Amino acid sequence: MIDVLLVAVGALATALIGVVVIGALLPTAHTVTRSASVAQPPDVVWKTIRDVDGYPSWRPGVRSVKRLADERWQEYDGRQLITFEVAEAHPPTLLVTRIVDDNLPFGGTWTYAVTPGPDGGSTVTVTEDGEVYNPVFRFVSRFVLGHATTVDRYLKALAGRAA
Asked: Which of 59, 74, 80, 135 has CB 3.0 to 4.6 Å from 66, enough for a Cys bridge?
């Protein structure tokens, strides 16, 4: 019985060490780009993207938003607050937002490009230039969750909102 317990503890410790080592070897920075067709024209899509106060009504995972300033806000996902700000805006075609919290295990920017699409709709392209600082979280982000998960979920919700 003790032998089985020792083997189990040893296997768990080895797996944890492996996660830390692999995570430490992964690059801190990553880039993910995804696009989606949205049924609304660029000006309507732009208004939806810029209406941060309305995010909880359509963005999965955003429970509440607190406006801090005209171009700065916090999103609460049920576990943590994340502070964002607009880094660049060229209505209705380009928006760059960035995470401005220093105490998170991740950070980076999202660049939203909105272009006219077929049938009067739009094509929205989101590029995440992210950084994951903690090696364990970097491993999980890369191999368990996937770097593109949040961008894909966002684009799906945006397309559903604008349908």
From this structure: 74
